[in-house]
Amino acid sequence: MRWFKGQSWHYLSACLLALLLAGLPARAAAPPLLLAEVLRGEVDLPHYWVSEKLDGARAVWDGQTLRFRSGNPVVAPAWFIAGLPAEALDGELWMGRGRFDVLSAAVRRKAPQEAEWRQIRFMVFEQPGGSGTFTERAGRLRDIVARAGVPWLQAVEQFRVPDRQALQARLAEVVAGGGEGLMLHRDDAPYLTGRSDALLKLKPWLDTEARVVAHLPGKGRLAGMLGALRVETPEGLRFNIGTGLPDALRRDPPPLGTQVTYRYTSLTPDGVPRFARFLRVREAF
């Protein structure tokens, strides 16, 4: 009888756990999005719309739910969500140039802070599933934003440049003002998903991610703190990143296994990034 009671209790516990899990909302799959290629060589610039590359958190609105690129829901205030339209939108949650770390902390909170979200804008640049060319979709986005009439929803400005010299001048202007770079979207492109050269990114440097595999001790002024991160690329290449590390991170280094984003100018013949500089810990939104 004692054995039967024990077995019954285990069975009952399993049933209750199954019922509880069944009631939890399933995490949505990552939405299929258009991802940019790096601009290399020459392109037919008169056939591209150009915009500033915003350093924010990619987000997608499907008419009902706002989600990060990962598929995780964005925990935003009710008033922020209520102001969004019925149409699907793709864009960036953004607080302005040079404020990614502040934005990242704000959008990852389980309880959104009113004062922070009043500074966040949803900057939209694509209409998921939209018909026609990108030129036509960009026009519809401007109309959708105008009808919504809320200050936290804005369409990213699209502009033309006549030649490479003008493009480089705009890039220099954006970077000098604290911006990250430029995006180029082919004007006749249909709506696409996946990585495509219909969307190109241009920055004064390249950036990518690597995994932290070791902490190297500092010397001199940095004695007792982190001197450099030993990182490994997805291809298995290991190298050190010692510049760009803020003192707060040197005192409390990211755990081994953490993905970090770094920038560099080019690769050596052996594939090692030249002038690698730490940008940030890669956040999993």
TrEMBL record:
Signal peptide: 1-28
InterPro entries from the UniProt entry: DNA_ligase_OB, NA-bd_OB-fold, NAD_dep_DNA_ligaseB
A Pfam family recorded for this sequence: DNA_ligase_OB_2
Keywords, comma-separated and alphabetical: DNA damage, DNA repair, DNA replication, Ligase, Signal
Keyword Zinc appears in the UniProt entry: no
Coiled coil spans: none
GO biological process, one term: DNA replication
GO MF assignments: ligase activity
Superkingdom of the organism of origin: Bacteria
Annotated ranges, domain DNA ligase OB-like: 217-282
Keyword Ribonucleoprotein: no
PANTHER family named in the record: DNA LIGASE, DNA LIGASE B
Name of this chain's protein: DNA ligase
